Amino acid sequence: MNSITYWFYGLVAHQHLNNLMEKIHPILNSIQASYRGRIPTRADGKKRREKILKAVRDIIVEHGVQGVKHRAIAEMADVPLAATTYYFPDIHALLHDAFLDFCERNINQLQSLETAGRELFDSFASLSELADGDYQVIRERLTDMILRHISVQVKNKDDRMIERAFRNESLRNPELAQLVNDMELQQLNAIAQFFQALGSNDPDSDSRELIAIILYLEHSLLAGFVSESQALQTLQRTFTRLVS
Fold this sequence. Notes:
It comes from Aliikangiella coralliicola. The chain is mainly α and about 240 residues long.
């Protein structure tokens, strides 16, 4: 789950909110209410469940989703085999909850983006109308913030591998596909609100284009196909088209 999208949502909503977390909390509540596995209440149970979910992430990084089996998870997490089926009745439920847990963890990494977005929005909030020069400043600052965000994202290669593994698995797993699609629609709607606030004629298309470019740059930087300077040029051209 790409956390930049939730930052955009907070950027647009900041006129009415003092803190982005007021928008993140309902999303977190929705995620937590959607878990299919058993949710423990005792501290030792919570710790064991977390070890199982961490083992799922570690196995995905090493072997892909096809390596996620109850026995392999039990060995990786150093828990009894029965514990994996106690908390998660089957692999589908385990993957379902592992994906939600992954999304929840990514949402909690937004503090620096929230601060940057608030500062950018505040610098223009008092203006009744944006001039051409204002749009240029917005483009430059958005480019800088997103490039810094992407740089942080690519430093965590394991998370990007997990993110893509879940997306690929959703092509084989209809239930996971619906979950991934629901999350992606939230992302698209969040970014579309941002472009709508800037007066876009087609905010939905603009949001899809930006998400695609962010994912492309993350993958290309990780694979070594583009340099950071090339990524910067791509973002500059993108915002020249989208923000004017």
